[in-house]
Amino acid sequence: xxKYYYITTPIYYPSGKPHxxxxxxxxxxxxxxxxxxxxxxxxxxxxxxxxxxxxIQRAAEKKGIDPKSxxxxxxxxxxxxxKLLNLSNDDFIRTxxxxxxxxxxxxxxxxxxxxxxxxxxxxGWYSVSDEAFYSEDEIQEIDNKKTAKTSGSIVEWIExxxxxxxxxxxxxxxxxxxxxxxxxxxxxxxxxxxxxxxxSGLKDLSVSRKSFSWGIKVPSNKDHVIYVWLDAxxxxxxxxNYPHTNNDLYKNYWPADLHLIGKDxxxxxxxxxxxxxxxxxxxxxxxxxxxxxxxxxxxxxxxxKGNILDPLEIIDNYGLDPLRYYLIKEVSxxxxxNISKDKLENCINSDLANNFGNLCQRxxxxxxxxxxxxxxxxxxxIEDDTRILNLYKSNINNLIDYIDNQxxxxxxxxxxxxxxxxxxxxxxxxPWKKKSDLKRLNTxxxxxxxxxxxxxxxxxxxxxxxxxxxxxxxxxxxxDIDFNSIKSHNILKKNTNINKISILFKKIEKND
Length: 512
What we know:
By secondary structure, this protein is of the alpha/beta class. It has helices spanning 20-38, 54-63, 67-84, 98-113, 171-180, 188-199, 228-233, 235-238, 248-253, 266-279, 311-318, 320-330, 341-371, 383-404, 408-429, 438-459, 464-471; strands at 4-8, 42-49, 91-94, 117-127, 132-134, 139-142, 145-148, 156-165, 185-186, 205-206, 208-209, 217-218, 221-226, 258-262, 288-291, 294-296, 299-300, 337-338.
């Protein structure tokens, strides 16, 4: 039977140009998507842009253009970012698309029919920047300005007629759902935060606005637009052609396996979203993972602070795969992380140029010199060989478990250990001293080539372009990459030709 996997990024709010935080979420999601594909899954990877709400309307007015034209322009930069980051996303959704509006209207109608929505009046604090409502104890006053404690965004007092979702009704069902699905929210610290918030008491949620017009209209009352988060969250369904639930996309991929999000939007995904879905009798996603922020120095990036890190500048200066590798390896997944020129350059020199690039160069050059770029036709394993080769077979289930539980750093640590071991094996075995024992020389070459193949497959989800260059040594194409093949020792065909390889990563000269 076919196996399916549905992964999503947050859909990005296109009120400004993309920054490193957007790149990080997308690259991490791409890592998981690529891994599950080479594990044999049919993957659906979704990203896109969230284009409604007061913040967008105000930004468009400031530029003197209509909101749709503003969104067309900015959304295009996010779509282009997907290409520049070499993302393997299967769809890019925009909340201004007709398919999305139909999904949102349908979900609203279901909630209204089930009496989960009612009309009343809202008065309280609202952040346009966060598109979020805040209670009195969630705000603070700094320099005579009211701001949200969590984000620092300015809040405004609003009073207007509004539709409300009966969120309070879902407090106990949500706590029961979390208890029955202990890995619905990860990492553990985020789960504890959500459960504490829900236990403190849920109030009914305002789900429409009248004071601006840029959004999807409430089907039964066109004076109201649907709250931007009820609108935005539904993208995960609309990309699967919901409300048509008998189509293959919906049947195969819902509920989503993983919503990958930044920790600042955890409440929307882990409280409001499952409540909306449970109320509409739709299964909630299997997991929401709230990762940390990529900081600029010690602060969260924001346009107002002027501390945005531009991923395009780093790619121009260092290349895409080094950036991907750095973000996946050096940031402790789930926690905040930062990027610095010095750390990035050390990472490129040590891990990529020395450990991986140099291993490939040395082994292929030695194979060319001694075997004319052919896979050895005679070899015989000794204990040293089987020990290092069997490490992959004996750890494959652990590696898959790491990925299925988003233990990204454990996966990368295993690769690091194997790169060290492969380099040590080639050095310790000293094949250049074995020219009088051709079978041993051939065996060392064969094992070293096999280690390069296995490591390149494991690195493929992290640095796909570079891994494919290395796998072309063995004439392995992207469509033929199979993660399970790292268990085998006999994939490389005896006496077949292999290809030379150019330098993978240039060492960066550092001034002491």
